[in-house]
Amino acid sequence: MKKIYLFAIGGTISYLKGKAGRKDGKQILEETGLDKFDDMEIVIKDIISKPSSDMQIEDLFIMAKEVQNAILEGADGIVITQGTDTIEETAFFLELTIPNVVPVIVTGAMKHTGLLGADGGANLKAAIMAAASEILRNEGCMVVFDEMILPAWYVRKTNTQSLDTFKSQFGPVGYFSEGKIRLIAHSVKPDTDYKFGREVLEEAPARVCTHSVSIGDDGKMLEYVIEAGYTGLVIEGLGGGHCTTEMAERIRQISDKIPVIMSSRTGSGEVQTDTYTGYPGSEAELIKSGVIYAGILDSAKARILLLLMLTAKKTIDEIRTEISEYCIFD
């Protein structure tokens, strides 16, 4: 009999309309009719209860340690239910900290049970099935939503209300058909099996902030990043990873003090590294000044990766080398 651990964190799937508090894991399972499985044991762990918009980095550290403990206790699969606002960060954090020995599945709901067409029950059932699946055992962390199986590396929330809000820029790696899992592709990942170990999770998390570039942005806010106590910066650049001349100068002033990673505000595609040159805000000139380019990662995931690297006490040069291994597919 498979043993599946359910970590019920909060979010829409646990929302009690008009009432204080949130449903715990047992209530979620009972309400959706998923509390009885003949072929598996569901072990419920309620460790955090809050909206995903209120989750902290420290919560991710707690969650990862609890998942590691569950695997040591003999879990055959892990399911995490939480709010959809930050599912992509949770999934990627777990991808980087949990060994690929059992399926780790993150899911939630876009409509709570007080609304017609509530999707939490269907998503949870699919997530439990995915967590118990042998074919997903070595695939890493996945988001299961709307009967799609999406890899943590590329998944992102793309719509504020649609039930199929979660997408991957390269499509799903699997889906459900008549209650069965169809794995159609393996998630393409960097050429590294490195995971951040338990010792990193015992440290106080580093502080990394994100800044999104817009037209005419002079980057003056960046002057306060170090003063505010941040030890890393992720920039959502324009297009392939560009910014204004004024911002480029301010980036140069801090890039030798803290790691600065450039991603793209477009949310998909790989940032450029040698297409444009000759003006200060081009990728070639920014790289000369020490900016590290995020490759295929969007800003939210680049922030998670940089945060873990800084927590692991990596130097700027080590981060530059390892980012290229994690995020650029040669």
Summarize the structure in words.
This protein is α/β, with parallel strands linked by helices and 330 residues long. Helix content is 28%, strand content 19%. It contains 9 helices and 14 strands. The protein has helices at 25-31, 57-72, 87-97, 120-131, 198-201, 245-254, 283-288, 299-311, 316-327; strands at residues 2-8, 40-45, 77-81, 104-107, 141-145, 148-151, 155-157, 166-168, 174-177, 180-183, 208-212, 232-237, 260-264, 292-293. The strands form 3 sheets. Strands 2-1-3-4-5-6-9-10 form an 8-stranded mixed beta sheet. Helix 4 links the parallel strand 4 (104-107) and strand 5 (141-145). The longest helix has 16 residues, at 57-72. The N and C termini lie far apart (42 Å).
Distance, first to last CA: 42 Å
Quickly give the structural class: alpha/beta
Question: SSE order in H/E notation?
Answer: EHEHEHEHEEEEEEHEEHEHEHH
Strand order of the largest sheet: 2-1-3-4-5-6-9-10
| Strand percent estimate | 15-25%
Q: Please tally the helical runs, counting DSSP H or I stretches of 4 or more residues.
A: 9
Q: Strand count, sense and closure of the main sheet?
A: 8 strands, mixed
Number of strands: 14
Helix content: 25-40%
What number is the mean pLDDT? 92
Could you tell me the radius of gyration in angstroms? Answer: 20 Å
| 3D shape | elongated
The unreliable regions are: none
